[in-house]
Design brief:
The structure holds two protein chains of two kinds. Chain A is built from twelve helices and seven strands. Chain A is of the alpha/beta class. By secondary structure, chain B is an all-alpha fold. Helices cover about 70% and strands about 0% of the residues of chain B. Classes of the chains: A alpha/beta, B mainly alpha.
């Protein structure tokens, strides 16, 4: 019995060691999450511009090109609840904050992460933010939050032939995302032809519940900023026409109404609207709603210019 | 908590160490620990119905003792029928109430009456079909004086709630289980190692085979209206392998865990796809359910109808399989599934080969041509019937059948999961090679030396870890 127990324990050691090394790799290997967190933590006092939002902003604003000290804290699938949690977590340290950019795209007020969403526990691990009570295992293991996602991630990192993501010190990807538009050779006819398949499941009906919840979260940021003389900027990032074709008009109207109401309430709120900006051509897009690296450089410069002009 | 969860990887070693190092003094202490562990296990899986499980245990324990006390007369029959009715009633309420009422309403509405029914929100307690059948079998056996009722409440509850089998069986017989736990168990090294191997093999088939087939079968059946016949054919074959890998995987894990505690429970599968007729298939598929149905449904009916010879057998088989179908769930698809399987027995009954069909390719590496054709035909037949098992409703099943047997069967499938096809071939190859063992993987470990054995174990553990599909619930949990 003792021999069996010892043997079973010894047998499990290499497997446990493998799990620990994977976990350590994920924790210490630079990724956009820990790079952004590290930058913000060490530069919080100097940050003048803070960007919040989803992958649309995460992949569109390169803080390196901004004149002011900037942190882009947007991440893929980040909803207003997480925006708000991040904002209030770091705001006491951001003594020099002048601008807060809130992404207000088509989906922004409707998308809400469920408690079991893969990325939610990462905010707990990297920022100490708990919007839902994390599962016991997720408190200790990033790998356990989505084993299949991380298996692919690690294989990709270890594969010498795969396309590697390189982030700058701000956590911004210098290679952008690998999009379907390149695969389609930026052929607009093909892009429109295949758009429905890509987009139809992403354009859901409006959710009153999510809208009200997200609105409350956004308003909490806005109210705090206005009360503390921090400029609020609503940012609409560029969307390609193929996506806009599938917009739900009711949802769009709710979003536009929100912007209108907030700006009418306080004219200090600025709107930077690039949603239909024709300066962005098909080659600036990686897919229907995300920019390429070049597209992101273009948008960052335009945003920077707008802010600097406003400052004058 | 399920066998393929991280929680169980923590739970099992704790129970194992406590069982053999702390609670090993007597059968009583061992049972007490197993009972406590089983209660914790059930609560972690579905805390809402622990009281139902407890009530079922107390009532059946008491009724069985009362039945045995009243040797003859109306009181004994009354107690017996009361017990059976209570168990069936619980099952009917939780599992079939909405189905039956809904079906009656539909029937009335069909005749022109206008009745509406809002289904009740009834949650299905985990393992209810398994533990209720165990209890009914127990009462029947006590009533038939085949066994004495248990006089050890803790042992009886351990039998009822034993964690390796509570969620998905096997439907264990009391005469197999209780004698084992009424005596003190001593550690059996070889059995424990075998248990670990069997658990590993079960985990592999569940995680690597069943879970990796699931995305394709879901894609094919959830979008069946846009699938062609050949894709549906692939879907039916994949789904049949998926159910087998899923449920036999669970059963192997259950048997394996139990062996670690030196308790043997019924293995539910004996390589059913290597059968040459339907009767043999059912003797090897979900063995504990089939043998339960055979003893408590088929045999009594067949005995009553013995004068009608083959006609009586046919009727008994049909009734038995109707119940087998219904046991799986409250849906007309399961009723049809049972009836079709019952009908498949008719040629076998007419031929008089019900009890025939043992092991194929005995003492040979390969089956004969005749055996091969029979096995493949039977596999395909079972796969087609499994459309009823997978379909949402009869209309869905019918639509799948119509498309499957259309000309589109001869076109290239819309979905082509070829890597999974390789996985299936690899799985069946191992099953074939290891078919003379209790579980296939045993063949590969008993004959090799330590380095090869350990390489196999690690290889399998790594495959589970790396290639294990997204954690899916065990299919049979829904029953």
């Amino acid at each position: 019995m003792r021999a069996f127990t010892i043997k079973a324990f010894l047998f499990s050691i290499p497997l446990i060691a493998l799990l620990i090394s994977l976990e350590a790799y994920l924790f210490f290997h630079a990724n956009s999450f820990n790079t952004k967190a590290a930058y913000l933590k060490s530069n919080a006092a100097q940050i003048e511009c803070l960007f919040l939002g989803s992958s649309h902003t995460a992949g569109s604003i390169n803080p390196e090109l901004m004149t002011m000290h900037t942190s882009n804290m947007a991440h893929a699938k980040q909803d207003p609840q997480l925006d708000s949690a991040l904002f209030f977590h770091y705001i006491p340290k951001m003594k020099n904050l002048k601008y807060v950019f809130i992404e207000i795209n088509y989906h922004s007020l409707e998308f809400k992460n469920e408690p079991d969403a893969m990325r939610v526990p990462w905010y707990y691990r990297y920022h100490g933010i708990k919007i839902y009570e994390p599962k016991f295992l997720h408190r200790f293991s990033i790998f356990a939050t989505s084993p299949n996602f991380f298996k692919t991630y690690i294989v990709n990192k270890l594969n010498p032939y795969s396309r590697k993501s390189i982030n700058n010190k701000y956590g911004f990807s210098l290679i952008g995302i690998e999009g379907v538009f390149q695969e389609l050779n930026y052929n607009e006819a093909e892009i429109f032809k295949t758009a429905e398949k890509r987009i139809k499941n992403r354009v859901s009906d409006p959710s009153v519940k999510n809208y009200s919840f997200n609105k409350r979260k956004m308003l909490s940021i806005i109210d705090y900023c206005l009360a503390n003389n921090i400029q609020v900027v609503f940012l609409k990032t560029p969307f390609f026409t193929s996506y806009k074709k599938y917009y739900n008009s009711e949802k769009l109207a709710l979003r536009d109404e929100f912007i209108k109401t907030q700006r009418a309430k306080d004219d200090r709120i600025l709107l930077l609207d690039f949603e239909n900006d024709e300066r962005f051509t098909v080659r600036d897009f990686a897919n229907d709603d995300h920019l390429t690296f070049d597209g992101a450089q273009k948008l960052t410069l335009l945003v920077n210019e707008a802010i600097m002009n406003q400052k004058k | 908590m399920t066998f393929n969860s991280i929680g169980f990887a923590i739970f099992l070693p704790i129970v194992f160490v406590l069982y053999w190092f702390v609670f090993s003094k007597s059968a009583k202490t061992q049972n007490l620990l197993l009972l406590l562990a089983s209660i914790v296990f059930y609560i972690l899986a579905d805390w809402k119905f622990i009281s139902l499980l407890a009530a079922s245990g107390f009532i059946n324990y008491y009724l069985a003792r009362q039945i045995a006390k009243n040797k003859e007369g109306a009181a004994r029959s009354l107690l017996f029928y009361l017990g059976v009715l209570l168990n069936v009633g619980v099952l009917l309420y939780f599992k079939y109430f909405n189905f039956f009422v809904d079906s009656f309403v539909a029937l009335f509405n069909y005749t022109g009456a206008k009745i509406s029914f809002t289904p009740f929100h009834i949650l299905l307690p985990l393992g209810i079909s398994f533990f209720t059948f165990q209890m009914i079998g127990y009462l029947i056996d006590v009533n038939n004086e085949e066994i004495e009722p248990s006089s050890n409440l803790a042992a009886f509850f351990t039998y009822l709630a034993y964690f390796p089998k509570i969620l998905s069986g096997p439907i264990e017989r009391v005469q197999n289980f209780l004698p084992q736990i009424e005596r003190k168990r001593t550690f059996d090294y070889a059995l424990a190692v075998d248990g670990m191997r069997q658990f590993l093999w079960g985990l592999f088939t569940k995680m690597v085979i069943a879970n990796n087939l699931n995305p394709f079968t879901s894609e094919i059946f959830d979008n069946s209206e846009s699938m062609n016949g050949s894709a549906l054919l692939l879907g039916t074959i994949y789904y049949t392998v998926q159910i087998y890998a899923d449920f036999s995987g669970y059963s192997n894990m259950a048997c394996g865990v139990s062996k670690m505690f030196n308790i043997r429970i019924t293995n539910n599968f004996a390589f059913p796809f290597f059968s040459t007729n339907i009767s043999e298939f059912w003797r090897k598929w979900h063995i504990s359910l089939t043998s339960w149905m055979m003893d408590y449904v088929f045999t009594p009916i067949n005995f009553l109808l013995r004068k009608h010879k083959k006609l009586g057998v046919m009727f008994s088989v049909l009734v038995t399989f109707l119940l087998v179908g219904l046991w799986h769930g409250a849906n007309w698809t399961f009723v049809a599934f049972g009836i079709v399987h019952g009908l498949l027995f008719i040629p076998v009954i007419i031929k008089g080969s019900m009890a025939k069909g043992t092991s194929v390719a005995q003492n040979r590496a390969l089956p004969t041509f005749n055996e091969g054709v029979k096995m493949i035909s039977l596999f395909l037949l079972i796969s087609f019937v499994n459309i009823l098992f997978r379909a949402e409703n009869i209309q869905h099943a019918w639509a799948c059948f119509t498309e499957l047997f259309s000309l589109s069967l001869f076109t290239l499938p819309i979905v082509r999961p070829w890597i999974s096809a390789i996985l299936i071939v690899f799985y069946f190859l191992i099953e074939w090679i290891g078919r003379n063992n209790e579980y296939a993987f045993a063949q590969f470990t008993n004959k090799f030396n330590k380095p090869i054995r350990y390489s196999l174990y690690y290889g399998m553990a790594l495959a589970i870890f790396w290639f294990g599909g997204e954690a899916e619930q065990f299919i049979y949990f829904q029953f």
